[in-house]
Amino acid sequence: GQQLNQSPQSMFIQEGEDVSMNCTSSSIFNTWLWYKQDPGEGPVLLIALYKAGELTSNGRLTAQFGITRKDSFLNISASIPSDVGIYFCAGLDGANSKLTFGKGITLSVRP
Amino acid sequence: ETGVTQTPRHLVMGMTNKKSLKCEQHLGHNAMYWYKQSAKKPLELMFVYSLEERVENNSVPSRFSPECPNSSHLFLHLHTLQPEDSALYLCASSQVDGTEAFFGQGTRLTVV
Predict the structure, then answer these.
(1) Contacts of residue A104 in chain B, CB cutoff 8 Å?
(2) Tens digit of pLDDT for each residue in B18-56?
(3) Which of A18, A89, B64, B79 is most buried, judging by how many CB atoms fall within 10 Å of its CB?
(4) How far apart (Å, rounded) are the C-alpha atoms in residues A89 and A48?
C-alpha cells in the first residue's frame, strides 16, 4: 500500500531556531496536508497544498508541494515553546480519495 | 461550537462492557471517518461513511460497530474489547472528495 515516510521520529531544537521537516513517498499525490497534534488532542490542519511546486505560508509556517508530487516539506521559523507537538503529513491521491498519513515527527523546543 | 466534537474524551471499560463513542460535526461535511491512533503507529483508518453510507471497512474486528444515522453524527459501538484495543480514537469529517479532513479531539479509550 501507499506509505508516507517522515523522519527522524523526533526532533529537538532550541527556542528561536528554524526547523524543516520532510515527507516523502514512492507514490504520487495530488494533495498534501500538514497537521499538528498536541498531547491528548486531535490533529489540527495547518496547511493544505494542491499543486506541484506550490509554496504556502501560514504565519511562521511554510510548506511546499514537491515538483515530483512525491514529497513535501514543512518549515517552522523562529520556533516557540508552543510549537511542541507531533507533526503529520498526509497525502491524497486522485484514485481512491483516501488520505494516507505519515507516522509523524515529535518536535521538542527547549526554552 | 467546535467543528468536530467527540464524546466522551476519556473512557475506561472492562472487556465485557458495551459502550459507544459519539462524534458530531458542524461543518456541513458529508463524509465521516473513524481512525485509531496507537503509540508509535501511523493513524489507522477504520471506517469511512460517505453520504451516510459505509464505503470502507478496513478489516476492522466485528467488536467495533459503526453507525451513521445522518451526515452530522457518527457512532462507534464497542463490545467485548481487548486490552490491545486501548488507543486514541479519532473522528474526522470532510467533503466527499476528502480533500481536507478535520479531526475531533479524540476519545482516549483504555480497556482493562
Answers:
(1) 42
(2) 999 999 999 999 999 999 999 877 889 999 998 888 887
(3) A89
(4) 10
Return the ∠ at Cα B45 (arms to B85 and B34), rounded to 5°. Answer: 75
Q: Which of A39-43, B22-26, B68-72 has the lowest mean pLDDT?
A: A39-43
> Among all chains, which residue has been given the C-alpha cell 481512525?
B35
Residue B52 dihedral angles phi and psi, to the nearest 5°: 70, 5
CA distance, residue A62 to nearest chain B CA (Å): 18
Q: CA torsion sign, A7 to A9 to A13 to A18?
A: positive
Mark yes or no for CB contact A42/B48 under 8 Å.
no
- CA B5 vs. chain centroid, Å, equals 11
β A44-49/A99-101 pair status? unpaired
- Which amino acid is it at A28? I
CB contact under 8 A, B98 and A45: no
Q: For chain A, what percent of residues have pLDDT higher than 70?
A: 95
Residue A36's closest CA among A76, A69, A4? A76
Q: What are the strands, taking DSSP E only, across chain A? A: 4-5, 10-14, 19-25, 31-37, 44-49, 55-58, 61-65, 71-76, 85-92, 99-101, 105-110
Mean pLDDT value across residues A51-76? 96
